[in-house]
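Students often ask what a 'structure token' actually looks like in practice. Rather than answer in the abstract, let us consider Aminopeptidase O, a protein of 811 residues. Its sequence is given first.
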Amino acid sequence: MDIKLDPSRDDLPLVANTSHILVKHYVLDLDVDFESQVIEGTIVLFLESGNRFKKRSSSTEVTCPSESNEACKFRMPEPCQIPVTNTKTFSSKIGYNDFVICGKGEKDTSGKDGNHDNQEQASGISSSKYCCDTGNHGSEEFLLVLDCCDLSVLKVEEVDVAAVPGIEKFTRSPKLRNQIVHELMALPADRWREQLDYYARCSQAPGCGELLFDTDTWSLQIRKTGAQTATDFPHAIRIQYRTKPQGRSVTWTSDQSGRPCVYTVGSPINNRALFPCQEPPVAMSTWQATVRAAASFVVLMSGENSAKPTQLQEDYSSWHYYVTMPMPASTFTIAVGSWTEMKPEICSSNDVATERSFSPSEADFRYIGVCGHMEYPCRFQKASATTQKIIPHRVFAPACLKGACQETLLPLIPPCLSAAHSVLGTHPFSRLDILIVPANFSSLGMASPHIVFLSQSTLTGMSQLCGTRLCHEIAHAWFGLAIGARDWTEEWLSEGFATHLEDVFWAKAQQLAPHEAREQQELRACLRWRRLQDEVQNSPEEMQVLRPNKEKTGHVSDSGSSVIRHGLNPEKVFMQVHYLKGYFLLRFLAKRLGEDTYFSFLRKFVHTFHGQLILSQDFLQMLLENIPEEKRPELSVGNIFRDWLESSGIPQGWPWGPVVLCLKCPVVFELQVAKWVRVNRRPRKRKRKDREEVFEKLLPDQLVLLLEHLLEQKTVTPRTLQSLERIYRLSEQDAAVRHRWCELIVKHKYTKAYRDVERFLQEDQAMGIYLYGELMLSEDPRQQHLARRCFELSREQMDKSSAEVVAEMLF
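Now compare that with the structural description of the same chain:
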């Protein structure tokens, strides 16, 4: 399959030639410089070639991407001026680099680093088998293509792993560098500590020859003279590089205390502007990283270990993390800032929700069996891990949020972790860090291996929003991380599952009785149904499809490159269709099977597929095999594909009964809504005999639904709005409630509460994007001025995608 990429479209290219060669391990050695807003250092890639590599034939030759028809000319980068020949000599700031980065100290915006940085080049890379003329001979050579963007690559070299002392202990070919790398990667899982140690030693080894490289908009291309196949290409290479301040994988900003910080933002381009890598999910790899920063900063990262700083000279500290479970490079996460750790109280088994006893069918899926994934030290193989309800966890935030974290977040973590374990079994990851990220974070949460980012918006009001979002991100440990989508266009496999599971986890964490849990879940389903209907009416049809590639889902080109449709569309970040349609499909299936049967199956599915990548059919086929014949009418993989996953809008003609029962609100709640409608219709001067209405206390989800009903009223009087705010203390509620309150304020031009809108736009940026649109659509000069003023105040710190969307609304 030949993929042609049009840089003017909003599709995201994945250009790495993963069908030919795979990165199996990364070793990063980086310095974080806040003054220049640059991360710089080296990354060593340990590669494994496939078994399909042959000499190139003319039928697979493709010209190098360029605006001209000339052959691609590779050049050596400008040499670094400060070589270090003694690999055992470390500076106080440089960890185990064997050379020092040149040109440090200035904010790098020019890209003048001795190699191409061609933004004007075409972004199309359809194959790694290029016909490249180096200018001094006419032979064709293997090209390693890595996903890379917004990076200044300074030097690429082969690593002499044969020079590592002691390497002969576990290799039969101590002089064959590629064989050494192969045997190092082939060490059994129980020798993972030794393997990591030798990866680190190899990464420090001297170079044994610089490699030719070039870049274009989306890739870094590397070759070695004379290496004509992936097997011949060096299997350990070191890339010296630096990020750019405007790079899209990380954001440099200030935290809520006004201190500088930098963190990965879940960018549409993933991590390719943080380090050169293989982005396609099939490139499952492990990693280890040493990161140095000023001693006042804390470095958090995706890692199995709870890293502690090592003090270096000159007021710098070094942090080291590692991961032994292979995962896509896109899941790598880092956050560096002046975070304060909030240590939870030591919890005992009495402090958390009591674990219910399991039925025999549930217990069957808590055994230690054979795993289906590639070999790694798997927690599903450890008896102690399978019974660990609450994994070790830490919470970090700016010091000014300490009180809010202690009051709202810390008490929720143990019961939410325990609830997740009671539903799905073994926690895939051994520990969890939770970080409250800066206000410019464009989402309520983001899960990565061993670390979760939460928005500050989750800390306000009651515990409902914080608890449900925490449960959502915890669910991603299973669906999204331990089990990932092989094709990123199938986002529902991550977000649909996490949305469905968050309600189940949250009900158990609250220790609700079955009828209470059912009522809560049906209310939340009702809210989501309204949201889905709204999204379907107001979004492009092509972006409502959960499996847009249809029968080509999971297909890649001969080289392994592919395209994520609409991956660069800034509005896609704010769409919820993958969450909502996926949620309703799973809710429908759970109702059809019966929830006990469904969740018993889900545990079996997790045991079968953890550590692997899946497509929709993997889940659906296994599910249907577990459904009794009498419950399978109209259910088939083909029907579900056609009606749910490959069509826009809401499925038509399905037996939706069990799914939409939630649309009938409880009588008590309907009475509350009716009361407010009556209050709103009353004349300003009431007769004395009219009785004052008495309103029940409402929970956050009920308040959201009430406000949504009132938003449907053509007119809501200032008197009614004032009563609403007073009775329910709306400005003190959680962000979900305040968002609907702000919509009411804007719609009815309730000027007395404009301060609440301003506060929301500043402090709840993850949820406030479309409020800007409503302010502008009102065509009210005061509201439009409010929108522009708030945007100017936050624009510089705002997430790039969010700023782009808002600017389009305002100007």
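One point worth highlighting: The domain at 666-684+693-810 is CATH 1.25.40.320 (Serine Threonine Protein Phosphatase 5, Tetratricopeptide repeat). Ask yourself how you might have guessed this from the sequence alone, and why that guess would often be unreliable.
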